[in-house]
Every structure is written in C-alpha cells, then in structure tokens.
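Sharing a chain and its predicted structure for anyone who wants a worked example. Both blocks are below, sequence first, tokens second.
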Amino acid sequence: MLKVKNLKVGYGNVPVIFDFSCEVNQGELVAIVGSNGAGKSTLLKTISGLLKPMAGEITFCGERIDTLPAYAIVEKGIAHAPEGRQVFGKMTVRDNLLLGAFVIRSPQEQARLLDEVFELFPILKERENQKAETLSGGEQQMLAIARSLMSKPKLLMIDEMSLGLAPVVVDKVMDTLQVIRDRVTVLLVEQKVQEALEIATRGYVLQSGRLVIEGKGKDLLESDIVKKAYLGL
C-alpha cells in the first residue's frame, strides 16, 4: 500500500532522515519506533505532504505522492493524527470531527462516519457539544484519532499516541487501536517501544535518522539492539 524508498528529508539544508526505506501492506499495523529526535515525526510529515523530500520517493497504492500537496494526499486516502493532538480547542468535539470529513461530500456519509467514531469512542458522543479544550489529554487523543478516521482513510498514520498520557490511559487507547486496525491499515510512530512492538505486525527502528533494524514486532522485542537501547535489558 505504502512504499518509502531511499528517503532523505531535512529542514533548510540540514538533513534529519538519511536514505530511509519502509513499506506498509494493506491490513498491517506497522510501528516506527525510536527515541525522541530520531526523525519519526519528520517521516510522517513527509508522507502526508507537509514536508518535501530532498531525495527518494513515496508511492501510495502504486501512485507516486511525494510531489502532491497535503490536501491531495488526504484525498488519496492517507490521514494523519499529528503529535500533540492539535485539536481545535475553541470548537466543539462535533465540529472538530466534521472538519476531518472535509473530503466527504455526502452529508449522509458524514453522518454515518460520525456514528462509527462515536461507537468506537463513546466518550466523544457524551462530549459532543463540549469545546475540545475542555477534554482531558486522553480524550483529546481520542478526538484526534477520530477526526482522522472521519476522512475514511485507507491508511491512518498516528504520531506519538501515548505522548503526555497516564499509563492507564495509554493502555485504553492501545486497546482501541487494536479495534481500529481491523478497519484500516495503521502506521504508528511511538516512543513507547515495547507497547508499540507488542501490537505491531512489523516494525522499523529509527535512530538518528537512519534505519538500524526492521522485522516482525515480536522478533524486534527479542533483538539485542532493541533490548539494550530501548528496554533497558
């Protein structure tokens, strides 16, 4: 579904990702893990069109997308739940969700998608008419994911889902992610290496902008590189 080949990305003339390649197949949950500053968020911003690569290429469903603007990439079927939630605080939960459905022309389809995300996140239904800024951190994370699902994506990218959340909330959101993966292909960027790799079909470990190891999620948890660098073993 998604193929990233020999990607080089940076800010100004300073590269932060070097010759990185990965792929995501339909129905998978693929995790990109690594420490803070490894280049994980930069990778997702590049896939979603917010940054343009210095070199390399990105294809989605057989079509090259790295030259397209961000809005066109959403229309192709990629949604991005960004780091730090970035919900619209002064707007209601419902209006945040409807903004996520800007590519859906049919009001009936928008209503159906609303029902789907409310079923997935019942607390958002309860908070439907509240301003997003009044939600807890965990509820805002649920809103950010639900808003992304409102575009009816083929691929959902989630950036640092656990950031700033209490462990019990992280567990709850991870459980919901396992339900989401049955509906849509997921590319997850996460600092919590163990939690991400436990649920991932496959994973890639990014370190200082370079790929250091890849493989099945459970196999990576057993690798010496991951144990020493991220699990303290």
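Comments welcome. The mean pLDDT is 91.
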